[in-house]
Prior knowledge:
The chain is mainly beta. The protein folds into two domains: 12-311, 5 Propeller (Tachylectin-2, Chain A), CATH 2.115.10.20; 318-448, Trefoil (Trefoil (Acidic Fibroblast Growth Factor, subunit A)), CATH 2.80.10.50. Helix content is 7%, strand content 44%. Strands 1-9-10-11-12 form a five-stranded antiparallel sheet. The longest helix has 10 residues, at 12-21.
Amino acid sequence: xxxxxxxxxxxxxxxxxxxxxxxxxxxxxxxxxxxxxxxxxxxxxxxxxxxxxxxxxxxxxxxxxxxxxxxxxxxxxxxxxxxxxxxxxxxxxxxxxxxxxxxxxxxxxxxxxxxxxxxxxxxxxxxxxxxxxxxxxxxxxxxxxxxxxxxxxxxxxxxxxxxxxxxxxxxxxxxxxxxxxxxxxxxxxxxxxxxxxxxxxxxxxxxxxxxxxxxxxxxxxxxxxxxxxxxxxxxxxxxxxxxxxxxxxxxxxxxxxxxxxxxxxxxxxxxxxxxxxxxxxxxxxxxxxxxxxxxxxxxxxxxxxxxxxxxxxxxxxxxxxxxxxxxxxxxxxxxxxxxxxxxxxxxxxxxxxxxxxxxxxxxxxxxxxxxxxxxxxxxxxxxxxxxxxxxxxxxxxxxxxxxxxxxxxxxxxxxxxxxxxxxxxxxxxxxxxxxxxxxxxxxxxxxxxx
Length: 450
């Protein structure tokens, strides 16, 4: 079920050309406005969460998490745990979210959205009746059929890529084998270019010349069974969930894959010729992704769509003390404390927004006093209005890390005093260095919904 996703939306003129040749258009049509960047969908994050996360990039290399790397949407159907989230654009310009529901489920999760912010019409769609798992679903538009093809990884005696066709993501045809090179494969991802459909996949075998690595096949059509392998291993052993995007500035492509045993570490490779099968690994530091990313995919968005996502305020959240779990961070005037039985509840609710001093970090905006933020002053935490100064922005920006006392929770490191963390002391919030076990417990919090 692994981690993967990806597809890039092409310029409208190219879409028309592809449709005329019967090529795949993953995520389908282009946004109405010219593309201005990419959006990454993934699960994981810090702390780990089986829900939809989003990030954005303007160059396809450096990605900034939205909502402070916290979930932007949690499903309320099935197991309520969504893995391998895939977001694609339909022919009408709206979006569909697909996700793996469970390790051994015959169903996938499906949601609809017009704006990538509000997800509605949640439903479980049964993809097979053979007790196969349905991992890592993606979809493409098949112009010849006038329907969407949903591809996914299923298993009988071994894993293959299957397809169901649908006009509406509600009713689907019976599954059929879409891609089977004769050995165990998962995590298929289609990327069309210049009349050819390229299918990237994971060799799931544990032995052989390309075990647990990413390869590619290609076809001039979308016909099931028409793809042929044309590369050796593109990535190292221990990778899965590939997705591919094209640079918007040149004929260059980037392939990302998840080092699935490393807990949210990705590798990236590049080529200037998809047909050659030759890829070069990018050095660490030449690309950045949010911490904890698992099984991702990406698609293009317009400037207006990107601006709307960057301005969105998900949440709100409460910060629950690790070692005093009946107490939550709250404001009382400008004073910041941890208290039990907070009233009104909104005094303990915050929206996580891109860091005022650095969008890769986070700031905490009060729900009931919008425009005011959690900030430190003389190493004491306060809630104050943003005065627009560089000093305020630095004081109100924090790096969210894995919890110092519990890695499934979070700790908040000061942006401008990176040797100090938010911790409680006598129930009040202060900014201090953290060394002892007590310090670490005091500086660890759970992010919870109200």
